[in-house]
Known about the structure:
By secondary structure, the protein is mainly alpha-helical. It has one domain (6-99). The chain is 85% helix and 0% strand. It contains three helices and no strands. It has helices at 6-35, 42-62, 65-99.
Amino acid sequence: MRLFNVDLIWLAVGLFGQAMFSARFLVQWIASEMQRRSVVPQLFWYFSLAGGATLFVYAIHREDPVFIIGQGAGLFIYARNLWLIRAARQRAEAERAQSGQ
């Protein structure tokens, strides 16, 4: 008797990835409502990266080249946005340090 069903586990992985990927829209909506303007918070990119990575692994398991290409390309964009945010914060900190604040 099997203790677990592998197909069911992969389905759960796919659903979890999709839930994380979809949660980014909820995060963006709440942040925008709080600021009364359209914003894309950093957490949006983290949910994008985590959900995209999980869906990428699921797509590889499914051997779906369309899904693999779509999620794989997105991972570069999400990671790049996080990198740009980090670089901007480091520049701002360096400028504050130079100005003596």
